[in-house]
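Thread: "does anyone have the structure for this chain?"

Original post by V.I.:
We have the sequence but no experimental structure in hand. Need at least a predicted one for the grant figures.
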Amino acid sequence: MSSENGTDLPKLAAPARRALAGAGYDTLEQLAQAREADVEALHGMGPNAMNTLRKALQAHGLSFHTDNTP
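Reply from O.Q.:
Generated one for you, tokens below.
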């Protein structure tokens, strides 16, 4: 999985990768459109994977979607 802008998902354990792929998330941009609680609820997503995703999003100036945005 390679994107031109370098925002591929970070390396994760197989269950977390399968969970994200099954939900249709291939890039950090796609993940930034999702609510953190929804991603965390996916079967296979554990605390380590969530921490890795938060850090990867932050490193690219992104974050999980929040309902508070106007």
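V.I.: this helps a lot. The mean pLDDT is 89.
O.Q.: and The radius of gyration is 11 Å.
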